Amino acid sequence: MAAGAGRYSAVRLLKEGLLGNRGWGRAWRDPVPRKGYDVIIVGGGGHGLATAYYLAKEHRMRNVAVLEKGWIGGGNAGRNTTIIRANYMLPGNTDFYRYSIDVWETLSKDLNFNVMFSQRGHLALFHSPAERDAAARRANIMRLNGVDAELLDREAVREKVPHLDFSDDARFRIEGAVWQPRAGTARHDAVNWGYARAADEMGVDIIQNCEVVGFLNDAAGRVTGVRTTRGDILAEKVGVAVAGHSSRLAQMAGVGRLPIEAHKLQAFVSEPIKPHLDCVVAFAGIGHFYISQSDKGGMVFGGDIEMYNSYAQRGALPVVEDVAACACQVMPSLGRVKLLRHWAGIMDMSMDGSPIIDRTSVPGVYLNAGWCYGGFKATPASGVCFAHLLATDTPHPVAEELTLGRFERGSTIDEKGAGARAWLH
Amino acid sequence: MLRIPCPYCGPRDHAEFDYGGDATVVWPALDDTTEAWVEALYFRDDPKGPHRELWRHARGCRLWLIVERDTVTHEISAAHPAHPGMADEVTAQSQAETPSA
Fold it and tell me: Are residues A96 and A209 in the same domain?
């Protein structure tokens, strides 16, 4: 068992407070890799850690290691804009993201770690009669799939967020919005730490600074382990959850090419300001922009990817300009707010804009990839479904459509209808 | 900002261009197998390093270019017209302009 930080509670907080906070201990161990494991998860991001947690919790598989080349949550899990929503329209996505919200709702209690999941609602604006029709269709589809959604008119939106641009000469007049009350945000780092701590407590080894550099196979081609910068580690099964580098790992594992391209996406945070926005606002269609306010007060926002293949975790200025223009367009009061930081992460842009949780052509190698811009909100469901696949070799009921084979069958899940151009999803 | 050396317009900001994706894709014959089409349509090398890619100088000469760019450093090593005949013409022209020894 783990060294263990023990259970977190209000009583414990009070006690530690009185005793000078000397008794907390580390939240997860720093183990030396064992010779082998039943399952190795490559990638210590949210999805990998969640997968390990559900393997241990739901499937009693505790001889599990998570290998992370840097530090856990140092990739996209710590670089996103923390938005959680389920406004999808196509079979394959609808059930999956609805289920993810269900898991989010009990996650803090389940992990005994406050992931600060805040169901502050998601407001997707529309600006024209045609967009209203599309929004009504989307809201109806969401409701038919059991996801909460309301179509709001201009006045109802004004009541929620009066400081959006409601002026008569606004370039894009706000006509209304799709409102999803159960959507919201969570603290991304807390999600990683919560899953890591809970998985570690059940015996999962979380091994940081351990980069996978190759795969080990038997004569029949089945995977038998991985080569890492900390030596060879044996495993019955290897789950790859390295969004941003999925193509690289898949080619290293002998799976071959994937229907994925790496593209970079920037995110932004402003200086902290007083409470200014108590829900998530999205502006999509004409531009692309989404914003919320963190509990620290920073306005957290983002826009489009940069539209060219890249593995560089740094953004360029045209997108900064575009996102800043959108910010001033949607919420003119942000005009004089200073940008504090911006950064970029590498997205697994899949060829239809939807993810992949599936087995691969190499026996024993499993793939969790292709999350495009949307991986954070999927973290709990992705963990549950990938763990289910790794443990049982059958897809979880809500992830049955998220296969690699869908491209061959012509049954892509293309929400945007953008076709096989990864950067347009 | 990338600076793409358009063979016709000179070095220009990438904001003048539209991206066209992987230029190494070879489209199969119309009557080729489904597998060949699936491979060409959906599957990509997605290299970390040198990448041959298509860009269209949409806010310039409007021509499609093949650009060789590194996906980590973003360094651009070459840009040619995507049309093979025009590429040959550009090459011939630049050779003609080079003073002979």
Answer: yes
Asked whether the beta carbons of residue A257 and residue B43 sit closer than 8 angstroms, the reply is: yes
Residue A12 belongs to a domain: no
Does residue A332 lie in a domain region? yes
Q: What is the pLDDT of residue A359?
A: 98
**Cα(B62)–Cα(B16) distance, integer angstroms:** 10
Domain boundary among A347, A370, A405: A347
Q: A285 with A374, same domain?
A: no
Average model confidence (pLDDT) for chain A?
96
B44/A247 CB distance under 8 A: yes
Domain tally, chain A: 2
Domain around A147? 122-183+262-347
Query: Cβ of A247 and B71 within 8 Å?
Result: no
pLDDT tens string A211-248? 999 999 999 999 999 999 999 999 999 999 999 999 99
Q: Which residues of B touch A422 (CB under 8 A)?
A: 21, 44
Measure the CA–CA gap between B66 and A67, rounded to whole angstroms. 38
What are A318's two structure tokens?
């045209």
Question: What residues make up the domain containing B22?
Answer: 3-97
Question: Phi/psi of residue A373, each to 5°?
Answer: -80, -10
Domain tally, chain B: 1
- In whole angstroms, give the CA distance from residue A212 to residue B101: 53
- Are residues A257 and A194 part of one domain? yes
Residue A4 pLDDT exceeds 60: no
Please classify residue A233 by burial: count the beta carbons closer than 10 Å to its beta carbon, then call 0-12 exposed, 13-18 middle and 19+ buried: buried
- A316 and B46 within 8 Å at the Cβ level: the answer is no
Cα distances (Å, whole numbers) of residue A104 to A101, A162, A185: 5, 29, 10
Q: CA-CA distance, B72 to B86, in Å (whole number)?
A: 29
Residue A303 inside a domain? The answer is yes
Inter-chain residue contact B53 with A308, CB threshold 8 Å: yes
Q: Is residue A28 part of a domain?
A: no
User: CA-to-CA distance for A273 and A294, rounded, in angstroms?
Assistant: 10
What's B12's domain CATH number? 3.30.2270.10
Q: A162-187, pLDDT tens digit by residue?
A: 999 999 889 899 999 999 999 999 99
pLDDT, average across residues A10-23: 94
- Optimal mutation site among A249, A264, A310, interface B, most CBs of chain B within 10 A: A310
Q: CA of B43 to nearest chain A CA: how many angstroms apart?
A: 4
Q: A262 near A311, Cβ under 8 Å?
A: yes
Q: CB-hemisphere CA count at 13 Å for B32?
A: 12
Report in angstroms the alpha-carbon separations of B23 from A193, A313, B6, B64, B83: 41, 23, 16, 11, 12
- Predicted confidence at residue A1, as pLDDT, reads 41
